[in-house]
Design a protein that fits this description.
The chain has two helices and 19 strands. The chain is mainly beta. The longest helix has 20 residues.
């Protein structure tokens, strides 16, 4: 009986050791940037269909990457904002000959890792950090399919330091104590809005919008007529990056004066003395005097109303004297 008990204990110990030596994967081991995020399966990183079995944290579910250049030969993910990747992890149940590629927002290749494994147990591989990654992809370069159990990458969000483009076609129109500004829309995906700046000397500008506005036009009020104002606009993204100011536009509004009043004419033989009351507007400068010469009418002209005018520069026949 003692020998049998010793043998049983030895078998249990041996099984325990074997169990501890075997690879053991927990779903939590795949908790990187791709965990529970659906990937795209396609020919390249331009388009694809959504799949989720390669990032669900379950080693019992798989995704098959098609042979090279096939419609399913690439498995990729598009990050909404650039990230920095410093490690990756792949678990497969088949022979793998793949490229692990990292691309920027313009789909330009940043780094490529040629990855060859007979069977992969999901070891996490540290790499030199790769920044500004917007796309990560597994490309099958072999003539056999690759079965992926889990795929993940690790890292952090890359700080966005790229400012939006400067707004274009900026224009300004003056009004009574106001200015209407307009410009073309920016097309950045992470655009937050626009800041408007104002100046009275064209050099020192002050922001007049409390926070970025979302429309590509702005109406400024509270201006003083007769003063020249300068305006410029910038674009701001969701990370707080701000473009340089647009070329400035100047706006000056001078309201038209009131009409002259009490116009009187004192005719003498060969001259006429004119007098009037000048407008009280501070912007009044001078008057223009017009005259209209009407030829002497014959009896028949008076009868039928025909009038001849020697010169006309206004709609009612007046020509300026000076």
């Amino acid at each position: 009986m003692g020998v049998d008990k010793l043998l049983q204990k030895s078998i249990v110990y041996f099984i325990t050791v074997i169990y501890l030596l075997l690879p053991f994967h927990k779903a939590s081991a795949y908790d990187g940037l791709l965990h529970l995020q659906p990937l795209y399966s396609g020919k390249d990183i331009n388009s694809g269909i959504l799949v989720s079995t390669a990032t669900d944290g379950n080693l019992n579910t798989t995704h098959t990457i098609g042979i090279r250049n096939s419609q399913t030969g690439t498995l990729f993910y598009h990050f909404g904002s650039p990230v920095t990747i410093n490690a990756y992890q792949i678990s497969s149940s088949s022979v793998m000959r793949i490229y692990l590629n990292f691309y920027d927002a313009n789909k330009v290749l940043i780094k490529s890792i040629h990855y060859t494994e007979i069977f992969n147990d999901g070891v996490k591989h540290d790499i030199e950090p790769v920044s500004n990654v917007s796309y990560v992809a597994l490309h099958n370069v072999s003539t056999v399919q690759v079965v992926i159990k889990e795929f993940d990458v690790f890292g952090s969000m890359s700080p966005d330091t790229t400012a939006p483009a400067i707004p274009t076609d900026f224009t300004g129109t003056g009004g009574d104590g106001s200015a209407s500004l307009d410009w073309n829309d920016n097309n950045e995906a992470d655009l937050q809005g626009y800041n408007v700046y104002q100046s009275t000397d064209g050099v020192n500008f002050t922001k007049i919008t409390a926070s970025p506005i979302t429309t590509s036009n702005y109406h400024v009020t509270g201006l003083t007529n007769g003063i020249t104002y300068y305006f410029a606009v910038t674009a701001v993204d969701t990370s707080g990056n701000e473009s340089a100011r647009s070329p400035s536009v100047s706006v000056t509004f001078i309201p038209p004066p009131e009409e002259v009043a009490d116009v009187r004419a004192d005719a003498k033989y060969d001259r006429v003395k004119l007098s009037w009351t000048r407008p009280e507007s501070e912007f009044f400068s001078y008057v223009k005097i017009y005259r209209k010469k009407i030829e002497r009418q014959s009896f028949w002209d008076q009868l039928f109303g025909t009038t001849a005018v020697s010169a006309e520069t206004t709609s009612d026949g007046y020509t300026p004297m000076f």
